[in-house]
Amino acid sequence: MPVSAEHDDTEQHLLALHQDLETGKLAEVKQLLHALTPAEIADLLEALKPKDRLVIWRMLPADVAGEVLVELNEEARSGLIKAIESTDSEDLVEAAGTLDPDDLADIVEDLPEKIRQQVVQALSHHDRSRLEKVLAYPEDTAGNLMHTDTITVRPDVTLDVVLRYLRLRGEMPDLTDSLYVVDKDDKLIGILPLSILLTADPDKTVRELMVTDIEAIPANLPASDVALLFEHHDWVSAPVVDEEGRLLGRITIDDVVDVIRDEAEHNIMSHAGLSEEVDMFAPVKISAQRRAVWLGVNLITAFLAAWVIGLYEETIQKEVALAVLMPIVASMGGIAGTQTLTLVIRGLALKQIGVTNVNTLLMKELAVAFLNGVLWAVVVGIIATVWFQAIHIGLLIATAMIINLLCAALAGVTIPLLLQKMGIDPALAGGVLLTTVTDVVGFMAFLGLATWWLF
Amino acid sequence: MPVSAEHDDTEQHLLALHQDLETGKLAEVKQLLHALTPAEIADLLEALKPKDRLVIWRMLPADVAGEVLVELNEEARSGLIKAIESTDSEDLVEAAGTLDPDDLADIVEDLPEKIRQQVVQALSHHDRSRLEKVLAYPEDTAGNLMHTDTITVRPDVTLDVVLRYLRLRGEMPDLTDSLYVVDKDDKLIGILPLSILLTADPDKTVRELMVTDIEAIPANLPASDVALLFEHHDWVSAPVVDEEGRLLGRITIDDVVDVIRDEAEHNIMSHAGLSEEVDMFAPVKISAQRRAVWLGVNLITAFLAAWVIGLYEETIQKEVALAVLMPIVASMGGIAGTQTLTLVIRGLALKQIGVTNVNTLLMKELAVAFLNGVLWAVVVGIIATVWFQAIHIGLLIATAMIINLLCAALAGVTIPLLLQKMGIDPALAGGVLLTTVTDVVGFMAFLGLATWWLF
After folding, report:
1. Chain segment A238-257, per-residue pLDDT in tens
2. What average pLDDT score do residues A370-388 get?
3. What's the CA gap between B203 and A190, in Å, rounded?
4. B190 in helix, strand or coil?
5. Which of A 41-100 lie inside 8 A of B, CB atoms?
6. Which of A400, B128, B418, B435 is most buried, by the most CB atoms less than 10 A from its CB?
7. How close A211 gets to chain B, by Cα (Å)?
8. pLDDT tens-digit readout, B353-409
């Protein structure tokens, strides 16, 4: 049995792949690809230049090629699909055709209209209705996340009957850890975990042994709430029901892991104004366009700060030390504010912040800001006094820093809460707004106090 | 069957809890807690003030109380343990005593020495050796993550024998989706998925049906690699083996989900110099201390930038417009650099960046930086020219911006790579170093060029 020490290492696969491609050893490339899962191949493709991706993808068998499309991130996928379409779109139809309807649902909207029609028409009636069932729910809801491949049993049969039925059936969908018990109207009335099926007396009926105090997932529940449910309950799979409690399908942990990973990446990437679906090797023009918007938004902040400084041009001319020191006040406010903001955004994502504790949190953050404000104000004040041989400069920067750190704490707590109320993603907009506040307040406090005290 | 629309909502639980606590309805509080999983209760506790946590924790039955300790984040846990210890440490011994050895391993090092001894001594010989087995591996490795509750079978028995054995055994560990097939030396030779056990002919032997081309996890594999393996293979559980291939235990997806969540939080929190284990409601003094370090590190950056500005005091005195505009150059460089840095850190985490593609990536990022540099340089140049009625100011800031954006791209690619080589976490230190570069280069390019051109 292979022990997977260095098996799962995209970096090493990349190295091997490059060497084989350069020396033209295509048989070795195929062998390497054969040993990898579709998810691993997708990781590998994302690390290649777009034109190399097409070459590798064409070497895959149709069923693997289809799954690889599902596993790629959106931007890389749509780039690859365009490249395939412009050369030989038959491969695309074939690869998509091998997918089961639930996976197909994930990529069908990225397919060009003509290809989508071909693929959908080739589906059996049963598969087409499964596809439509999943597509009926918006992205990022339980309904869109679910698979429809459930095994259902009736409550009045014995376990022995169920066991014989399973053997007749011959195979089980991946990640099946429970059978679902439904009544004649397809309403979910319980689940029968495989562990009970395997350990209980076979003469007992399903009704006697099924678990009924379980939570079914409503099809319209947001994907992020589904992820929290899975984490809180350590589920492997869970049934999805409609408003009348009828069984629609099930969600499995592998898809939930993707949701968790995507959410986490969303938070990290949003911070830099990027999408979690961004492609590291997207064409320069596309990357430049996407990032330009974020730079433009931040330019507004920067000009706002510049405008504030401009109000005090005369003051700066009289005392140039102010220009030297002013970025310190703004930057320390930004850093302290980001700490509070980061904590609050996490708390909101975990739904740990609400009307009952927001005041406690604000008071705590203000207290922390005050302590750190005083500490670093003293340090900065002393350094500034020594540097410019002027105690009034030291006093000035110390006061401005305390003011800015308190404002930063206030902004760090309130901005994400306000954004969430307005339906704007705090992970995306929170950082820019916070920096705007800490820059403006920082420069205004420092230069404003200077104008008032010194002249 | 309850449909869990608003069930799993810490915010609503908080509200209910507060109302019940205020009106003294303790029976209602107990009822609410009874309906929640330990993970949900932990989420709830983290959203409460430390003194309320103790009150709630004491209301829990010992077994739930123990699991809640496991689920809490480290900082909240150690705070709660201190609070319990200082009032009645017997509860702590009792709660920890209910945990199975694998869960106990997660918290045993947070227990005060005296209590740890009591708990460990109360374990059976078998449980103590299980605990020691897990503790023998460092944190964040497969060995420390594993549970030892595997069900093993021999290859030469028939499925029918296995089925009867399972019925005799009567129960299965949570998240068991496979039985492990071992030889007489405990070496892992295959796995028998429950789905095969349930669907295959019971007269066949385990050897005929077991899956042998699986990857076993070496006990010393880092937890982050374990997570990638699970994601790439869609596993529910996987066997852990020692260097000789002997079965040690298994890792289950619920623990892997925690690893993924922790890693993601680590990246987000590190960005603000916080730990993923930070407690939102930690005492002010503790929070202030932890955050002070990060502010101090950033203060060095800020003073470095101030020192650069100080070099050009005379230039600024002659042309105050420079002081007004200089933060724009630095800030745009910081934003653009952060975009590159964020992409590269993600690529490194997924092992998608290596010697084969780092040059391609650098060229691409420089090209993107150049395009956006030119675009925004023109915009900023025109605004600055109009604002200060001086074309030389416009030309100056435009040139400086292009220089700084190119340096930002270079730093964004190289800094995380260098940090990783030096064994320093890029998510923690990358942002500070990048800002240092973009501040220093931004101020130096702008003010340096001004000194050279204008005077």
Report:
1. 999 999 999 999 999 999 99
2. 97
3. 31
4. strand
5. 43, 46-49
6. A400
7. 10
8. 988 899 999 999 999 999 999 999 999 999 999 999 999 999 999 999 999 999 999
In the 8-state DSSP scheme, what is residue A217? E
Sheet strands (E) in A138-222: 152-153, 178-182, 188-193, 217-218
Q: Provide the pLDDT for residue A102.
A: 87
Give contacts of A49 with chain B, Cβ < 8 Å: 357, 360
Measured CA to CA, the distance from residue A445 to residue B73 in angstroms comes to: 38
- Do the chains contact at B167 and A37, CB–CB below 8 Å? no
CA A14 to chain centre: 25
Rounded Cα distance between A405 and B153, Å, is: 63
User: Topology of B10-136 in CATH?
Assistant: MgtE N-terminal fold (1.25.60)
pLDDT digits over A120-161, tens only? 999 999 999 999 989 999 988 999 999 998 999 999 999 999
Residue A88 has what pLDDT? 83
Interface with chain A: mutation pick from B153, B234, B341, B428, highest number of A CBs within 10 Å: B234
Helix, strand counts (H, E) of chain B:
22, 6
Res B6: pLDDT: 47
Q: How confident is the model at residue A21 (pLDDT cuts 50, 70, 90)?
A: confident
A389: left (phi over 0), alpha (psi -120 to 50) or beta: left
Q: What is the residue-wise DSSP string for B340-399? A: HHHHHHHHHHTT--STTTHHHHHHHHHHHHHHHHHHHHHHHHHHHHHHHT-HHHHHHHHH
B323 touches chain A (CB under 8 A): yes
- What was the pLDDT predicted at B391? 95
Nearest to B348 by CA among A258, A280, A32: A280
Report yes or no: A129 at the B interface, CB cutoff 8 Å: no
**CATH classification (class only), B152-271:** alpha beta
What is the token pair recorded at B90? 């017997």
Contact A264 B269 (CB under 8 A): no
Q: Where are the domains of chain B?
A: 10-136, 152-271, 284-454
Per-residue pLDDT tens over the stretch B26-58: 888 888 899 899 999 999 999 998 888 999 999
| pTM, to two decimals | 0.90
Across the interface, whether the CB atoms of B341 and A292 are under 8 A apart is answered no
The ipTM value here is 0.89
* Residue that the structure tokens 């690390």 belong to: A47
Q: Is the pLDDT of residue B103 over 50?
A: yes
pLDDT category of residue B17 using cuts at 50, 70 and 90: confident
Helix (H) or strand (E) holding B26: helix B26-34
Largest CA distance in chain A: 95
From the number of C-beta atoms within 10 Å of its C-beta (0-12, 13-18, 19+), residue B213 rates as: exposed
Hey, are the CB atoms on B281 and A353 less than 8 Å from each other?
no
What are the distances in angstroms from CA B178 to CA A172, A210, B219, B221, B238?
14, 21, 19, 21, 9
Nearest CA-CA distance, residue B213 and chain A, Å: 6
H or E stretch including B325? helix B321-349
Q: Do A372 and B228 touch (CB under 8 A)?
A: no
What is the CATH architecture assignment of A284-454? Answer: Orthogonal Bundle (1.10)
Beta-carbon count within 10 A of A55 CB: 12
Report the C-alpha dihedral over residues B240, B242, B246, B252, rounded to 10 degrees: -10
The closest CB to that of B339, out of A272, A331, A367, belongs to A272
CA-to-CA distance for B339 and B343, rounded, in angstroms?
6
Beta-carbon pairs below 8 A across chains A and B: 424
Res. B341: pLDDT tops 50 = yes
